[in-house]
């Protein structure tokens, strides 16, 4: 039943598409790269900030309270 619905919708979409005057500037790729690299940098900074909390889940606790 679902296939029988999507096939005519897809065909109609292909038949009634309109031309679009879109232009991607050469700087668009550079901006996308900057966004991706900034995201990776942000993930790295967040990881560094919370590294002690993450690793404390696997560390053994000292019964005397010393953190050696």
Report a brief summary of the structure.
Helices cover 63% and strands 0% of the residues. The protein has 68 residues and is mostly helical.
Coarse shape: elongated
Strand runs, count: 0
Which band does the percent of strand residues land in? under 5%
Poorly predicted regions are: none
Computed CA radius of gyration, to the nearest angstrom: 26 Å
> How many angstroms separate the termini?
65 Å
Mean pLDDT: 84
**Tally of individual helices:** 3
Portion in helices: 55-70%
The biggest sheet amounts to: none
Structure class: mainly alpha
In sequence order, what are the helices and strands, one letter per element? Answer: HHH
What does this structure look like?
The relative contact order is 0.05. Helices cover 63% and strands 0% of the residues. It is an all-alpha fold and 68 residues long. It is built from 3 helices and no strands.
Main features:
68 residues; mainly alpha; 3 helices; 63% helix; elongated
Can you lay out the helices and strands and say which pair or pack?
Elements: H1 2-15, H2 26-49, H3 51-55
